[in-house]
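User: Last request for today: this protein with alpha-D-ribofuranose, please.
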Amino acid sequence: MRRFLIDTDTASDDAVAILMALRHPDIRVEALTVVAGNVGLDQAVQNARYTTELCGADVQVYAGAAAPMMRALQTAQDVHGNDGMGDCGLDLTGRAPTPGRGVDVIVDTILDSPGEITLVTLGPMTNVAIAVMRAPEIVGAVDRVVVMGGTGVHGPGNISAMAEFNFWADPEAAQVVVRSGLPLELVGWDISITSAVVDDQRRATMEAIDTAYSRFAIDIARVVREFAIGHGLDGDDLPDPIAMTHAIDPSRSETTRLNVDVMVGDGPQRGVMNVDQIGITGRVPNIDIVTHIPSDHFFEMLFEALRD
Ligand code: RIB
Ligand code: CA
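Assistant: Here's the final one, the structure of the complex with alpha-D-ribofuranose:
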């Protein structure tokens, strides 16, 4: 069994990614730690707990940071809906997080099992940045850190011309993390829009699966599907699920190791990846950037997770 710890700002695509991990026979999800991002912290906790309950998984959900490290929270409810889950009428109230701090859970889970934990991050990097500042020794103790974030080598951005939301929402945290020495594997939004778009044919396949899981995945993507199609895609894209696919089975991923930094501030550079593609800066390559995942590989894994 491989042991995953998932940090999430639980909106619709996060929920599908969490479902993929919870329902995979070879993966044990140690806990979910929640961060504010797509929606506020409490809503993200509700959405995460709803997802674990749907999957019948006895997995603890811990609250983490309610805001970015050095700026006000800016959510993305125009993308995923006010509740982050497609505003499709789910009862997303009344659930409480497990007592404890998400940042402490990240540190303790990794240090208690050196070399055994894969940390998968699906939201802004606030919890991970605070964790690595509090306990730098997690750098040498964690096995893998798979990050849905950034725009890959060439972009584009999805919240500004050149920035992806998770890095843009808390750019200072993203900069701390990319500079930390953590063994990062970045799955950017470029991979999502090239290999994880639920076009009409793939949506029809999801509908034909016709399980509580497939109906859930379709229903919660209602708002983001309209948003994505309105921005020129052939359907809703699934950035967190394809990042989870890389975490679960990286055998079909293509990667390149380059030096990556993240720009901060409040101008057009906010959250933009500064990628040294030809080693011109002399900075040491520090991050594995995923450059391709075959779409059939992703959708086979997604559809399998949605079947009973
Ligand atoms: O840019 C895509 C990322 O931002 C995904 O993780 C999505 O859930 C949002 O958090
Ligand atoms: Ca997310």
